[in-house]
Amino acid sequence: MSTSTTTAGGAGRGPLRTTATVAGVTGGALAATAAVSSVGAAAYFARRALTPDRQRPDDTSILAVDEDVVTLGLTPETVMPGRYGLWLDQSTGHARLGDLLDVDEERGRVRREVLGVDRGHLAPGFGRWNQYFYAGPPDRALGVRTEYVDVLTELGTMPAWVVRSTTPSTRWAVLVHGRGARRDEGLRAVRPLVENGVNVIVPSYRNDLGARRGADGRYNLGLSEWRDIEDAGLWAVQQGARELVLVGWSMGGAIVLQTLSRSWLADHVSHVVLDAPVVDWTDVLRHHARIHGIPDPIGGLSRVLMGKRWARRLVGVHDPVDVAETDWVSRAGELRHRMLVIHSVDDEFVPVGPSQALAAGRPDLVTMERWETARHTKEWNVDPERWERSVADFVSS
């Protein structure tokens, strides 16, 4: 009886145990696969966020050119008010465009004034929009005397442009461009600074086109790039600078903030100008994850992986990138420099929220200039007179 019961019981429970075991193994395998997939997706997003864009496609349609008028395909960029640049032939050529003449929404095209062709040939085909407006070294773009210098950094020499004030001055500005941008981005600030007695250096930093590669060839969100800006500031000090003004656009703002926090040169800084700055990379990365349809848990995991030493190979970085160190809303109490923050409320790339929070948290130091329709780093383009006046007044105060 006992044996029979055991056998019967064994026979009855055997298939159930087997099914449960298979289900457990299958569930575990699926969970492991999902975990691996999540880590893979998070690592991919982290790599994309940290990888420089070496070549960008010509993606703006040039439909017709009629002397000093160009017809372009209608895009969120080409319909913007103001003055802009247009790269031609994979950035070998460049044209400067004026304001909108008319918009034909039905046919999907806009007409803009052509203010000049700096190099190359403006013809039907494709180009690439830019907010720099001015392109090339300052002597060619602005008609001002320019020195071509090499700044010594820990990675070797980095090229820089120098424009000196027309009157002798011990004030110097370091202009720091944004992620994937060129030094040309800073040219819009040269005149209002030089005309107010401030010498200007426009440096390169690691992983720029034409500059030294970092240890991993990836952006570190300002956590390593600041060293190259420190070296540019040191070059200015060696030239007699007794006072520094730091100016940063987009990720250049994040680099400037790290320079203020980490560099001995911070004691020489009197004024800081930030245009559409990355004040908190967590906010920016979360924003880009959402617009690319990446679930919040994957986006959050990508930021965790960036900062973990064991995940360096997955993310492709030489040193961990601790995104929390870039949160200047939380670190606002550490700031001690006067800042002018220029940021458009409709910025589609770096949301304005952290800039507003920083200004609200440190009204004793931060002056906020709000733009309404400039999107990302195009405040000067939309209203150059206001931008230059605001910067000139701030650095002169």
TrEMBL record:
Keyword list, A-Z = Hydrolase, Membrane, Transmembrane, Transmembrane helix
Among Pfam families, the record links this protein to:
Abhydrolase_6
Residue spans crossing the bilayer: 20-46
Coiled-coil spans are none
Return the InterPro entries for the record: AB_hydrolase_1, AB_hydrolase_fold
Q: Which domain of life is it from?
A: Bacteria
Q: Where in the numbering of this chain does the AB hydrolase-1 domain appear? A: 174-364
* GO molecular function terms noted in the UniProt entry: hydrolase activity
What name is this protein filed under? Alpha/beta fold hydrolase
Which organism is this protein's natural source? Answer: Pedococcus ginsenosidimutans
